[in-house]
Design brief:
The protein is mainly alpha-helical and 423 residues long. The protein is built from 15 helices and no strands.
Amino acid sequence: MVKNKTYLSRTDYISIALLFALSFFLFADQNLMGPNLTQIATDFGFNDIERDVKLGGEISLVFWLIGGVVTLFFGYFTDLVSRKKLLIISILAGEIPCFLTGFVQTYEQFFWLRALTGIGIGAIIPITYSLIGDYFPSNVRSSITGYLGLVVGLGIGGGQLLAGMIGPEYGWKLPFIIVAAPNFIILLLYALFGTEPKRGQSDKNVSSISDINLSVIRKIFSKKTNVLVFLQGAAGTVPWAVFFVYLTDYLAQDIGYTIQTASFVVFVIGLSAMMGGFIGGLIGNKIYNINAKYQPLLAAISTFIGMIPTALLINLKPGNVNELSVTYPIILGIFSGFFITITAPNMKAVLMNVNHPNTRGMAFSIYNLADDLGRGFGPFIISIFILQFGRQWGFNLANAIWFFCGVFILCMIKTYPEDQKEL
């Protein structure tokens, strides 16, 4: 396999570092609600059912659906105009409503500001991976996506831990202000010092595409690997909603832990997930350079393994706060988070490797749309499961969806090498 080299300047590395920092704080907003779901519900006068449906379901639905629609818009223009300018716009679109969330007085204000915050996350994904695809060649992209996943995971986990630690004492609104503020400073630095790589500079022997049109979009969907990545992404985000939206509150309200302890358990799960994504990216990069088909095989096996500790975590027995052990759920969470997230950097690398440099933004916008549909409908679907079967059975049904993700990924073993050759 030919190994392309990449030559980056000092300002390129500064730009990449700022890009990673922007991602850290933008994604730190993602799970700020989870640790204080019951406190938010009390402030707005909701009962337990309204808490799970309105806060767990409806807000997640609008947050990710708006982000999904926006990602198509930004993904289209990512392949046509300055990605640096688009990135600046997307960060402002996400962080301004996040900051203002700290001052809401009504549920309606909260609802729409959370919806608008989804714009930033929906927009940054196609832009970021388009830039990474041009900064780095194919033989190191899995590693780079692993590093980015580590940074994003730190942001998500750090934001959730922050909310869990200061929310019970200082209120649930303050974390939104704290995580939004730093990005205004980082964004100014990026505007001053950020660079933008030439499209296709890290790819060799690719065909020419001058414009994005319906035929190009049809070509994206004509590649079986793309379709399989989109399907596993949409399905896989549904069970992740258990961790992102419900788990902290579930451990506190249903199992018997304190909010702080439950938040710490979920934070450790987040740390493990970060390491899984990081190490998974490194391993995926190594085995990709041996044989491309080993990359989806690794992702599929890790997905199946991760379902087992997740099921055990969901089915913990309730108890008194003084009798419950923190060690057992932490051990389960470590294995669950680690194995499940091995998939993420490898699927993103797969998507970069089978799509043309001039269409990666659109490919990732479609991927993010599929992802956002899962993230949006996931909590909403789980809230329906909860209404019908209760929290525990609802979460078990969600966990079972990861089986189908593993099957989709297994199918890539055949399609991935073939689609790469057609690039």
